[in-house]
Design a protein that fits this description.
Helices cover about 75% and strands about 0% of the residues. It has 20 helices and no strands.
Length: about 525
């Protein structure tokens, strides 16, 4: 005798989850088989599988639905995004990231603000002429934030971190800071009083943006340090590796939900929490826990990314989103083309000018970004992905559907741009990057750059006087570049002294793990 513990609704949900899990496995297998393809990567594979599955479901349900699961932007922000962003900070090679830190902030923060301004202004002018429906000023500003959020995963899959470390760190770091900045902008826009536009509103917007940016970073660093202190003092690995790993995972997620509780940017918070935990906490755990956490975080991030691309492809064919624009498809196509053009222009408006500015401040020719590298940076930020989708859902829909013509056009346009940029631009990425940065050329350049970087790092580690550091560079430097470089080196030296003298003895880290001789001297940066 059996007992039926599932209702009809529960059984449908179980069937949907089972099929979706099978599709995830299929995406991983197909992606592995196509890994050596010149054009395809795992994320495009997941997107195409999602489109095909959505089409089949649409046919079998006679046009009623194309989805297995209902999309909720809160599900995306609360469950899927945190492991991706945390793993980005945790697995990051910090040396290259912080060596390129000013350029990353320049492109990721200032560049996103420039792109936001261009897209917002252009959308108000162009979409108003297309007469797609009523949109408020807040909607146009939100459009700027939505389409400023990039998705550089396809380019990062092609770039070799060992051959082009500085370019990789810039594209990678800018992508994370860009997403955080876009989300912070979006949240700041929701809190603005746009009934009376004046200088006070502009100052309020700037103040809200800076507060969210700095407070989110501070919260992430604080939670990361707290986890390092607890694990160092309690030393759970002496009794149980499982408890060590569990505490690291829970503390990482805690930083994200605390940011949501305080209305801060969870992306920035969990990213900097990941950096701090890799610098301190990771060195305080046992060798087994190090291996476990490294692979656990990477696996969770990978599954979340595949899940997002698979669902975006499936959800793109949802009939509800297209029903309200079928009477005027030209408006949806026109809006999509206009917004895609603004994305291209907005990206170019800051990549090339800021690259020129960054080059003026660099002391070595090999650390400067040439035209081919600048084109690669520009191309890497043209694709739009899950963050843009989630923000668009948040702004223009409720539970995935809308009845207003203007909102319906914006949803369909966002889907069109995400699909077009991911598939078309993604397919072109591999051959384009190989053409712009041939492996032999980029590898030779990186060898020279790496040797100079090693020489500088050895000098810094030995804390030699700043006057002797000039022997590394054989060119005469302009006064502004020399001043900025000396300031950077001085700050780095002071940080190393502070880190070694106070932070590591208190919070642990490499070389400061008492009572645990089995811990390796390596670090997360080795991987």
């Amino acid at each position: 005798m059996g007992v039926n513990i599932l209702s009809d609704g529960d059984e449908v949900s179980v069937n949907s989850i089972t099929l979706f899990g099978a599709l995830l496995c299929g995406c991983i297998v197909f992606g592995r088989l196509l890994e050596k393809s010149r054009w395809i990567n795992e994320y495009i594979t997941a997107l195409v599988v999602g489109l095909c599955t959505g089409g089949i479901i649409l046919l079998t349900t006679q046009g009623k639905s194309s989805r297995l699961l209902a999309f909720d932007e809160q599900l995306f922000f609360i469950y899927l995004l945190p492991p991706i962003i945390f793993n980005a900070g945790f697995q990051m090679k910090k040396k290259h990231f912080f060596r390129n830190f000013m350029a990353i902030i320049l492109f990721g923060a200032l560049g996103t603000l420039i792109s936001f301004s261009v897209i917002s202004f252009g959308a108000k002018e162009l979409l108003g002429k297309l007469d797609i429906g009523f949109l408020e000023l807040r909607d146009y500003l939100a459009i700027g934030a939505i389409f400023s959020a990039t998705d550089s995963v396809c380019t990062l899959q092609v770039l070799n971190q060992d051959e082009t470390p500085l370019l990789y760190s810039l594209v990678f770091g800018e992508g994370v800071v860009n997403d955080a900045t876009a989300v912070v902008l979006f949240n700041a826009i929701q809190k603005l009083d746009l009934s009376h536009i004046n200088s006070r509103v502009a100052l309020s917007f700037a103040g809200s943006f800076l507060y969210l940016f700095l407070a989110s970073t501070f919260l992430g660093v604080s939670v990361g340090l707290l986890s390092a202190y607890l694990i160092k003092k309690i030393y759970l690995g002496r009794h149980s590796t499982d408890r060590e790993v569990a505490l690291m995972i829970l503390m990482a997620y805690l930083s994200y939900v605390m940011a949501a509780m305080f209305d801060l940017s969870g992306i920035l918070t969990v990213f900097f929490c990941g950096i701090v935990m890799s610098h301190y906490t990771w060195h305080n755990v046992t060798t087994n826990s190090k291996v476990t956490t490294r692979h656990a975080f990477a696996t969770l991030s990978f599954i979340a990314e595949i899940f997002i691309f698979l669902y975006v492809g499936m959800d793109a064919l949802d009939i509800e989103k297209w029903r309200f624009v079928k009477d005027s498809p030209g408006k949806s196509v026109g809006a999509s083309a206009a917004l895609l053009g603004l994305v291209l222009v907005g990206r170019a408006c800051f990549v090339f000018p800021l690259s020129f500015l960054s080059n003026c401040l660099k002391r070595s020719e090999h650390d400067k970004f040439g035209l081919r590298q600048q084109i690669t940076i520009w191309w890497a930020g043209l694709m739009r992905g899950s963050v843009s989708m989630a923000l668009a859902y948040n702004q223009f829909t409720r539970f995935g559907h809308t009845q207003l013509p203007g909102n319906a056009v914006m949803i369909t346009s966002t889907i069109t741009i995400v699909l077009f940029s991911t598939v078309v631009f993604g397919l072109i990425t591999k051959p384009l990057v190989r053409f712009l940065l041939p492996p032999s050329q980029s590898f030779n350049n990186s060898l020279i750059s790496s040797k100079q970087s090693l020489a500088r790092q050895l000098l810094i580690d030995r804390q030699e006087p700043e006057g002797e550091m000039g022997n590394v560079d054989f060119r005469r430097l302009d006064s502004l570049s020399m001043l900025l470089k000396k300031t950077s080196l001085t700050i780095h030296n002071y940080w190393r002294m502070f880190d070694d003298g106070f932070m590591r003895p208190l919070f642990g880290g490499r070389g400061f793990v008492p009572g645990a001789p089995e811990l390796s001297k390596g670090g997360c940066d080795q991987y």
